[in-house]
Design a protein that fits this description.
Elements: E1 4-8, E2 15-19, H1 54-68, H2 95-102, H3 104-107, H4 109-129, H5 137-140, E3 142-148, H6 154-164, E4 170-177, E5 180-188, H7 193-207, E6 215-219, H8 221-250, H9 253-277, H10 283-308, H11 314-342, H12 346-386
Antiparallel strand pairs: 1-2, 3-5, 3-6, 4-5
Length: 387
């Protein structure tokens, strides 16, 4: 639509419209009406659309005065029926905000595709190895040797043991304190007594260790399997009780299911990423997954509460929750990174890594998936109430 200035001619009492070449096809008219004395009723600069510069406004106002003084002939123009080629001429939202607010249903495909890819990865992992995740010795069962500081090269020792025991999974970790290596932890998934003794003797022989120069810890395969079963039973029960609490709090099915789906997606995608990185889950890793469920539910309940119990618009409630939630996420991520860099314990490092991956995944699922589902539910409910 062509922007025009409308003025009233005192001579023939007719309304004329003048095209402003400074502005091309805005979605509205900027109208400046002249009173009987030839003065405009409103300031041209004050009434200008926000994208119009004051310099252009002064130039067009001078042009309008020349028309009133008879120096230029007014030309009648008609409104153009052509569509506005700049639909966002007056939309001052950043491009990412327009996408987030206007295309939220399309954005729901992002977490859905991520979840599908994660399920595919876990399926391939299960078909290939028989387990849906990499299990450490503390879960799978095996022997753990703790050895004081040694000058032996870790990679050389690992290659030697891998050659001697090709059918077993062997992991060697260095223990360090204040940047100085203080010992080694050697783990192997050998569970039979004869194999365990052979493995320990081979390591002691290679490193020239006395009998009192190392310690061993043996976890039977049945004990590891039992522990793994119990921990994942606890994880499933955590989901069940979480769903009951959320349903009792909101007393609405769809928001409750949205919260549960986000927690499920966080766990599944985090496990898939751990598989891709080749991280073997220990007992501390299981604890980190349980912590992640609680963190996920916390941010989702915050979002649902701000949207369902809001006082303003839906987006005001969402942005209020985003401000609080992302602040919490940034604080948690900072603490996790510091703990990851400062800790010398492999168990603590694994916990920190899992929590960091989980909060990154939760950011996508909470502020895209859960937000989109809640907006869809609220808008659908409001539309039904107005009918």
């Amino acid at each position: 639509m062509i922007l025009t200035i409308t003025t009233m001619s005192i001579a023939d009492n007719k309304e004329y419209k003048y095209p402003l070449k400074s502005f091309i096809n805005p979605p509205l008219f900027w109208r400046v009406m002249a009173d009987e004395d030839g003065q405009s009723g409103q300031s041209a600069v004050d009434t200008a659309p926000p994208f119009v510069s004051k310099k252009k406004m002064r130039r067009d106002r001078a042009r309008l005065r020349e028309v009133k003084q008879g120096k230029k002939e007014p030309v009648k123009v008609h409104e153009s029926s052509a569509p506005d080629p700049r639909p966002h001429a007056l939309d001052h939202r950043p491009w990412y905000q327009r996408i987030y607010e206007d295309q939220y249903k399309k954005l729901l495909w992002i977490p859905l595709i991520i979840l599908i890819l994660a399920l595919v990865q876990i399926g391939v992992q299960t078909a290939t190895t028989g387990d849906f995740l990499h299990k450490g010795v503390s879960i799978k069962g095996g022997v753990t040797m703790t050895i004081p500081a040694t000058a032996h090269d870790v990679d050389t020792l690992k290659n030697l043991l891998a050659t001697t025991f090709p059918a077993n999974d062997i992991e060697i970790k260095a223990i360090s304190s204040a940047g100085k290596k203080t010992g080694l932890i050697i783990e192997a998934d050998v569970t039979e007594e004869a194999q365990v003794q052979e493995f320990v003797n081979r390591v002691a022989q290679e490193l020239n260790l006395e009998k009192d120069g190392y310690s061993t810890e043996i976890i039977g395969s049945s004990l590891g399997a039992s522990f793994f079963k119990q921990t994942f039973t606890a994880l499933i029960l955590a989901f069940v009780f979480m769903a009951i609490v959320v349903l009792l709090y909101f007393r609405v099915l769809i928001p409750s299911l949205a919260v549960i789906s986000v927690a499920f997606g966080d766990i599944v995608v985090t496990i898939a990423i751990l598989n891709i990185l080749g991280i073997k889950l220990s007992t501390g890793g299981i604890a980190a997954l349980l912590m992640l469920v609680g963190y996920s539910v916390d941010s989702d309940i915050l979002l649902a509460s701000r949207v369902l119990h809001r006082e303003g618009s839906v987006m005001e409630g969402i942005y209020s929750a985003i401000k609080t939630g992302l602040t919490t996420t940034a604080t948690t991520a900072t603490a996790v990174i510091v703990g990851l860099l400062a800790s010398d314990s492999d168990v603590l490092k694994q916990i920190m890594i899992i929590i960091f991956i989980g909060i990154c995944v939760d950011t996508v699922f909470t502020w895209i998936q859960n937000t989109g589902l809640l907006r869809w539910y609220v808008e659908r409910k409001e539309k039904q109430q107005t009918v």
